[in-house]
Design goal:
Blueprint (H helix, E strand, L loop, with lengths): L1 E6 L2 E8 L2 E8 L2 H16 L12 H15 L2 H21 L10 H12 L19 H20 L27 H10 L5 H10 L3 H5 L6 E2 L4 E4 L12 E4 L2 H15 L20 H12 L8 H13 L4 H8 L4 H4 L7 H9 L4
Antiparallel strand pairs: 1-2, 2-3, 4-5, 5-6
Helix pairs in contact: 2-3, 6-7, 6-10, 7-9, 7-11, 11-12
């Protein structure tokens, strides 16, 4: 049995498919709703109607996805996904009547985007008025990316036909706020103040732009001395955030790692480049050590390890390295992330225009 009905200003399609009731919002035109009804009846007869080969509850899908993530993603990624999916589950349960995956539409995702960004009037919700609303555009975009991943898995597993996130427009991110990075003078003061123990670690931070997880999980098998490359690659116990890549070593970086390798072979003989004293992965809180060193060196406003990564990228751009190359060296998955450094290259961009000879 199939029918159309009106609620408020909109017409809806109500149809049963294999014993399951499916309702879809069609729009405010009765004529369009009648056409949709005829189309749905034809598709049911041909066994072509539906969103997926089998339906599943949202709650069950979230559980399956997190189990998948625990096996295939880094632990930190799974933790972030868990937080996002808890918020999505809250929205579905408190703001909609949706139970099954087949009921989610692009409109549902658009409403979730509005919910997370602010209220229906487009104004940010004050803290405490709603659960986790009023988020930054970058955070909302990450949540949309997570949901896109979730629904892609659902398609692969046969629970969904189309991804409801695919046509949702991401929020515009304001990259006008300059990132904090160290000047050459600050870098020298900072490194000069480092102890013998921490100098190699922070020198490598500044000269490779690696993420913390990449640095602490770096092993000697990842160092290609012949080609002078540092390989960021998958391991049994760890996975890189954005896939594998290679970082060329400068002469100073090459010599530092050669020296460390000799010391390692004659001493602790660990597989890690920067090991703990027991030979395992380093357990020291590097951020705390960095802050202490910065205070002693007189380097102000250095409170985040990521600032050292920003420093690497910023100085590359200021020395004329193009943004796509910086993107590859940093391991960014999106050029928009790299664009935060674009303002540092005004002279480089001007030089590029001067090369035109029309």
């Amino acid at each position: 049995m199939a029918r159309i009905y009106k609620r408020g200003q909109n017409w809806y399609l109500d149809i049963r498919v294999k014993g399951r009731r499916v309702r879809r919002k069609v729009g405010n035109s009765k004529k369009v709703a009648e056409l949709a009804l005829k189309d749905a009846e034809v598709k049911v007869a041909r066994h072509e109607f539906g969103f997926a080969r089998k339906d599943i509850t949202i709650d069950k899908l979230l559980t399956l996805f997190l189990e998948y993530s625990q096996t295939n993603h880094r632990e930190t990624s799974t933790i972030r996904y868990t937080s996002v999916l808890e918020s999505f589950k809250y929205f579905i349960e408190k703001k909609t009547r949706i139970i099954c995956l087949s009921e989610i539409t692009p409109e549902t995702i658009e409403k979730y985007k509005i919910f997370r960004r602010g209220n229906s009037n487009g104004q940010l919700v004050k803290s405490g008025e709603e659960k986790n609303t009023g988020l930054k555009a970058r955070t909302v975009n990450f949540e949309l990316k997570t949901l896109n991943n979730l629904f892609n898995r659902a398609i692969e597993w046969g629970y969904l036909k189309d991804n409801p996130v695919i046509k949702i427009q991401k929020l515009k991110v304001d990259n006008s706020k300059p990132v904090r990075f160290l000047s050459e003078k600050e870098c020298k003061k900072f490194l000069k103040t480092c102890s013998e123990k921490f100098y190699p670690i922070f020198f490598t931070y500044l000269n490779t732009g690696m993420r913390k997880s990449e640095l602490i999980n770096l092993e000697w098998n990842d160092i290609d001395f012949r080609r002078r490359k540092i390989k960021i690659q998958w391991k049994e116990f760890w996975q890189p955030k954005t896939g594998k890549r290679e970082i060329p070593m400068s002469q100073n970086q090459f010599e530092l790692l050669q020296k460390l390798k000799q010391e390692n072979d004659n001493g602790i003989n660990s597989s890690f480049v920067f090991p703990h004293k027991d030979g395992g992965i380093i357990k020291i809180k590097l951020r705390g050590e960095m802050i202490n060193i910065a205070e002693k060196a007189g380097v102000e406003n250095l409170t985040k390890l990521h600032t050292l990564r920003h420093t690497f990228a910023s100085h590359l751009v200021m020395k004329g390295v193009d943004l796509p190359t910086v993107m590859k060296l940093m391991g960014h998955s999106d050029i928009q992330t790299t664009m935060i450094y674009a303002h540092l290259a005004p002279d480089h961009l001007a030089d590029a225009v001067e090369k035109l000879e029309f």
